[in-house]
Design goal:
This protein has 119 residues and is of the alpha+beta class. It has a single domain (35-118), classed as Sandwich (Immunoglobulin-like). The protein contains one helix and nine strands. It has one helix at 3-22, and strands spanning 35-42, 45-47, 52-55, 60-67, 71-75, 80-84, 90-95, 100-106, 112-118. A five-stranded mixed β-sheet has the order 3-9-8-5-6, with no helix packed on it. A four-stranded mixed β-sheet has the order 2-1-4-7, with no helix packed on it. The structure holds copper (II) ion (CU). Residues 74, 76, 105, 107 line the site of copper (II) ion. Keywords: Signal. This is EfeO-type cupredoxin-like domain-containing protein.
Length: 119
C-alpha cells in the first residue's frame, strides 16, 4: 500500500468514527467552573483583581483569602464568614443564588475587599 493510500484510508476511518459519535446521545453539559476571586491582605491593605466582581446567578463562587494578620473575612448578604489565620489561605465556596450587590470586608483591618454583583 502506498503512503498516500494509507492516509486516505485513515481519513475515511476518521469520518466514519465521527459519524458514529453523532448518533449517540449528547454528553451531559459540563458544569461551569467556579468563578474565582483571590484576595490578599498585607499590612491592612487589600489586593484583588477588581473592586467589583460580577457573576451570573447560579454560578459557584470561590473566594480565596490570604491575610498576613489574623482577621475575619465577611461577605454581606450571603452572610458568610471566614476566620483567617496569618498566612493561611481561607476558602469560601458557595452558589451565588441571590441577586444583588454585596460587600465583602475584613472586620479587623476594616478594609473593604470587593463587591460581589450577582445578576
Ligand atoms: Cu461585615
Amino acid at each position: 500500500m502506498s503512503r498516500r493510500r494509507v492516509l486516505a484510508t485513515t481519513a475515511a476511518a476518521a469520518l466514519l468514527t465521527a459519524a458514529g459519535c453523532g448518533s449517540k446521545a449528547p454528553a451531559p453539559r459540563a458544569a461551569a467552573p467556579a468563578v474565582k476571586v483571590a484576595v490578599t491582605v498585607t499590612g491592612g491593605k487589600v489586593r484583588t483583581a477588581s473592586p467589583r466582581v460580577t457573576v451570573r446567578r447560579g454560578r459557584t463562587v470561590e473566594i480565596d483569602v490570604t491575610s498576613d494578620a489574623a482577621d475575619e473575612f465577611h461577605l454581606h448578604g450571603y452572610d458568610r464568614e471566614l476566620e483567617l489565620k496569618p498566612g493561611v489561605p481561607g476558602v469560601l465556596r458557595f452558589v451565588a443564588d441571590q441577586p444583588g450587590v454585596f460587600e465583602a470586608e475584613l472586620h479587623k483591618s476594616g478594609a473593604r475587599a470587593f463587591e460581589l454583583q450577582v445578576d
